[in-house]
Specification:
Shape: elongated
Distance between the termini: 47 Å
Mean pLDDT: 88
Length: 151
Amino acid sequence: MFKKLFIVSILLWVITLGIFAKFFISGSTSKSSDQRVAIHLAPTEKDIVLGEMRTVLAAVNGSIKALSKGDFKETSIAAKKAGMAMAVDINPALMAKLPLEFKKFGMSMHGDFDKFSTDLDKGMNEKEALQRLGEITNKCVTCHANYRLTN
């Protein structure tokens, strides 16, 4: 009897783990009418993600403005605002709803901002800085072309 209960318990645990893994990879998604992947979030969760996107946009804007003045220190400060530190407090339940590729784009982009900030502090030139910003914003464009947030 104990052996059967043990086997059933292990099977239920494996099934639960499998379901969680599938959900972690695919998130809460469907195909949208414009053929992008629709990510289904509660209104407050959508507000959080959109708030992060506004912070990133403000960091890009601040970086461009500072670069236009040749102020690399201010560019570094602006870029750092969109780094990994801003992604620390995200709710695990919200993260589970995001598809894996979306999470990879986001984490990669935050890491890129940190590296950009560090490289600016080490003496990156204006041409390299603009090229790096173009590479970072290309991730934004790609992500927005592939995903949309819905309630």
